[in-house]
Write a structure and sequence with these properties.
This protein has three domains: about 80 residues, Fumarase/aspartase (N-terminal domain) (Fumarase C, Chain B, domain 1), CATH 1.10.275.10; about 280 residues, Up-down Bundle (Fumarase C, Chain A, domain 2); about 80 residues. A two-stranded antiparallel ribbon has the order 1-2. The protein is built from 20 helices and six strands. The protein is elongated, with a radius of gyration of 30 Å. By secondary structure, it is mainly alpha-helical. A hairpin with a 2-residue loop joins strand 1 and strand 2.
């Protein structure tokens, strides 16, 4: 099949078309990659048996060598013949080993033991080797922007309207903090992914057949098997691992995806013609419109928002996969396969966000222009607060009415307020610093700069520790 014969846009447009992302993600999200994890689990099970003397170390090594020779094409061909995926996998392994080794393949396991353990392992490694490094890379881009613009004045906005001044670095620091918290949540969820070896209904029935003679506790053997893979067992299981572990990871990734979408929205709106507070440095050959040659569209930010819209609802399917009748049904058999698409789209968007943010240019003159546009009205909060501090009994309503009159008459609030009856006695009580803010509202920025710097300091420390603990390599 050629690339453009694929059905999913992930394959022919976002993931498959991008050589860097394809190499990064393919070992974890592809069907061939999943097969490799199933084979690792089957080999680890035989290794655990050899450790306990159930089979020889020679057999364990033989199986280890054999699983490296099994490929997806032969497993799928066998599955088409017998109509069972894991038994097909087992048959393909057995064809490559001696009769002496064959009895130990898949011994004591049911299909879900292998599949759920493989899923836990692949998503844990995907998180550590791809998702977390990509998020750390994005976090560093955001920290750089926040630091460089920590004192760049910007009009703060609430409800899409001018509110009071902040700095652009302070605005970006919001995303430094939000993303940092999600990074830690994603790591925690990945660390808590679980496997199992508990048999057909989760009660270790088959393992108990040898537990007395070989003095093997089924749960201890399960722990030893999973430890080979760097996993822990579920605290309880039926035929399947408790679904909440994978649900938590998908939920934390989806929540982080929503932060990317929110950031993308903010950046897109700041590029609107009437705002133009940030601008992208376009590629020389980039076309913005099929008919308007002058245009440069914020397509990367729009693409992130659009992919979020496509994949955020997938979380509903993950939640529905928590339902399984009695010890197990197969109603999650197809639906759970799409979790890899959520992870793939998320990584694509994280990478794209890092790339586009590295190319933005802050338009400081227009940021100042937008502050100048409203600074004579946004002084209202500072004025009301100071009047209340100095004893005015109804400061908010007084300034609300004054601001409305100024708007109707087209006069400046920070000029008219000095002439307003009943306010002079309060002005007389104010300090020079307070009056300075009223005369120059653009200085009314609170602790924007300090907060931006402290947020960046905090998350640089947190994420440096996380990177060191996890030995993460940023790609």
């Amino acid at each position: 099949m050629e690339l453009f014969d694929a059905v999913s846009p992930l394959d022919y447009r976002y993931y498959g078309e991008n050589e860097y992302l394809f190499k990064l993600l393919n070992p974890y999200v592809s069907e061939g990659g999943y097969l490799d994890y199933l084979l690792k689990v089957e080999a680890a099970l035989v290794k655990a048996m050899s450790n306990r003397g159930i089979c020889s170390s020679k057999i364990a090594q033989e199986v280890q060598n054999a699983v490296l020779q099994v490929n997806a094409a032969e497993v799928y061909a066998e599955e088409r013949r017998i109509q069972h995926n894991i038994r097909a996998l087992v048959n393909c392994i057995k064809k490559k080993i001696s009769p002496q080794a064959q009895p130990y393949i898949h011994l004591f396991a049911t299909s879900a033991d292998i599949m759920d353990t493989a899923a836990a392992l692949r998503f844990k490694e995907l998180t550590y080797k791809v998702i977390l490094p990509q998020l750390l890379k994005l976090e560093r881009v955001l920290i750089k922007i926040a630091r460089e613009s920590s004192d760049t004045i910007q009009m703060g906005r609430t409800h899409g309207q001018h509110a009071v001044p902040i700095t652009f670095g302070f605005a970006i620091a919001e995303y430094v903090s939000r993303l940092g918290n999600r990074i830690k949540t994603i790591k925690k969820a990945a660390d808590n992914l679980r496997g199992q070896l508990s048999g057909a209904v989760g009660a270790y029935n088959s393992l108990t057949l040898i537990s007395h003679e070989l003095k093997i506790d089924p749960e201890e053997f399960e722990k030893e098997f999973l430890a080979i893979l760097g996993l822990k067992p579920s605290t309880h299981s039926t035929q399947i691992v408790e679904p909440e572990y994978i649900t938590d990871l998908a939920s934390s990734v989806t929540s982080c995806f929503s932060i990317l979408a929110c950031l993308a929205d903010d950046m897109r709106h700041l590029q609107r013609t009437e705002i133009t507070e940030i601008m992208e440095k376009p590629d020389k050959e980039r076309v913005g419109s099929s008919t308007m040659p002058h245009k440069v569209n914020p397509k990367d930010f729009e693409n992130i928002k659009s992919l979020w819209k496509a994949f955020m609802p997938r979380m509903m399917t993950v939640l529905m996969d928590q339902l399984s009748e009695h010890q197990r049904d197969l109603t999650n058999s197809a639906s759970s396969r799409f979790i890899t698409e959520l992870m793939t789209a998320f990584v694509c968007c994280t990478h794209r966000m890092s790339s586009v943010l590295a190319k933005i240019r802050i338009n400081e003159p227009d940021m100042s222009r937008n502050v100048d546009q409203s600074k004579n009205l946004c002084v209202a909060e500072a004025l009301y607060t100071l009047l209340a501090v100095y004893g005015h009994p109804n400061a908010h309503e007084t300034i609300r009415k004054l601001a409305r009159r100024c708007q109707e008459k087209g006069v400046l609030l920070n000029k008219q307020m000095w002439e307003e009856k009943g306010l002079q006695s309060y002005f007389d009580k104010m300090s020079a610093n307070h009056k300075e803010v009223l005369v120059h509202p653009e200085k009314y920025m609170g602790i924007s700069r300090r907060k931006a710097e402290s947020v960046c300091d905090f998350w640089e420390r947190e994420l440096a520790n996380l990177q060191e603990q996890c030995k993460l390599v940023i790609k």
